[in-house]
Amino acid sequence: MNRELAEVYPYAHPELDFRNSFELLVATVLSAQTTDLRVNQTTPALFAAYPTPEDMAAAEPERLEELIRPTGFFRAKAKSLLGLSTALRDRFDGEVPGRLEDLVTLPGVGRKTANVVLGNAFGVPGITVDTHFGRLVRRFRWTEQQDPEKVEAEIAEIFPKSEWTMLSHRVVFHGRRVCHSRKPACGACPIAHDCPSYGEGELDPEKAKKLLKYEMGGQPGQRLRPPADYPGQPAPPLAGR
């Protein structure tokens, strides 16, 4: 199934806009309980105001909260951003560390966020267990675990380390576009013939096509600045920004 997903999504990539490891770290923290699209619409103004850990560590909390308000839970997220920026400034010379054991010591950073940063900013393979990844690997019967760390450990036993980062992107891409939580588009799924959960969602091909999202459904993607090989259209910026 991983090989088939690779054929369907050869352009799979992180859907957060970022230019460096600090921007990816911040964007990933902001992505909790919201969409990557909303984060991408919010971060241009944020990084214009605070482009470095030193800048963000010195931010006025109220100003930071206002900038990230559209992502939700903005007070808790602002506290995490101030904490991790201060830690980067004081403990890591203003640089994002490239080791998981260091990243998870930063406020607001768990294994999922650390693996996103390692895999996409440092080229260190990692499995990113978000809600989409966990849902799909259970539907694929690759694991029955619910705990993210146990899911990560079991999937790591199935696939070679070199595949971990891209596997994460492919599975998340498929979850966002086709294999939705409440109503998967089974009748329009390109890997339905191998899926042990086929039939849990809409089977009628025409009805299923209407459930497809982003480029699969002919709609804009989540990135304002997508990579060159992305087949869809960029998302619109946040109104008023």
Structural write-up:
The protein has 241 residues and is an all-alpha fold. It has 2 domains: 2-12 and 127-217, Helix-hairpin-Helix base-excision DNA repair enzymes (C-terminal) (Endonuclease Iii, domain 2, Orthogonal Bundle), CATH 1.10.1670; 21-121, Hypothetical protein, domain 2 (Endonuclease III, domain 1). Helices cover 48% and strands 0% of the residues. It contains 12 helices and no strands. It has helices at 2-8, 21-30, 36-49, 53-57, 61-68, 74-91, 100-103, 111-121, 131-139, 148-158, 164-177, 205-209. Helix 2 crosses helix 3 (36-49), helix 5 (61-68) crosses helix 6 (74-91) and helix 9 crosses helix 11. It is globular. 41% of the residues are buried.
Layout of SSEs?
Elements: H1 2-8, H2 21-30, H3 36-49, H4 53-57, H5 61-68, H6 74-91, H7 100-103, H8 111-121, H9 131-139, H10 148-158, H11 164-177, H12 205-209
Helix pairs in contact: 2-3, 2-8, 5-6, 9-11
The CATH homologous superfamily of the largest domain is named Helix-hairpin-Helix base-excision DNA repair enzymes (C-terminal)
Low-pLDDT stretches are: none
Q: What is the molecular shape?
A: globular
Report the span from N to C terminus: 41 Å
User: Biggest sheet, in brief?
Assistant: none
Give the SSE order as H and E letters.
HHHHHHHHHHHH
Average pLDDT, to the nearest integer?
96
Total of helices: 12
**According to CATH, what is the topology of the largest domain?**
Endonuclease Iii, domain 2
The level-1 CATH class of the largest domain? Mainly Alpha
Gyration radius, rounded: 18 Å
Question: What CATH architecture label of the largest domain applies?
Answer: Orthogonal Bundle
What's the total count of β strands? 0
Helix content: 40-55%
Amount of beta strand? under 5%
Total domains: 2
The helix/strand class is mainly alpha
